[in-house]
Amino acid sequence: MELFSALGAGFLFALACNLDTVLAAVGRGARGGGPDLRGAMIVAAVTTGITFLSLALGALGAALLPAGLAERLGGLGLTGIGLWYLLDTLRGKTDEPRPEGGGWVAMAAALAVNNAGVGVAAGVTGLSPAVASGCNFAVTLAALALGRRLGEKLAGWSGLALPLSGALLVALGLWRVMG
What we know:
mainly alpha
């Protein structure tokens, strides 16, 4: 049962972190581009590496706090980040800047910045770096493929990514706080 809980939390985390990945792929798909298998593997590997490091850093910070407090603080952090995304939506900011041109490593670096802050907060909650990073790798590959297809068909969809990501982060944060 604990494995399913860890996988569920890891999957929610990966979904929240990869909505911007879908957006980046939508943008490239709308322009007739998008990552091939090699490009997708580069993006997934770089973002997952940064995500793992940030989750591990958060877990190390949690070791310094009393049991239970770290998970609640991290959950509050995730909830706060999610609420910030929702506030950005209300203020009219509907998408994150996407890298133009450049290679897949540049795109991956831009996407990983988003994961890094969220990863530290999620790591403090006790989210397994290995499980969450594994989920992130799989979801990143799926997000790139989905985004490319959506970009080819629905270029106007991008306005939903920020509020959906915020809602997923709030759900994950509350899940960790209620524990």
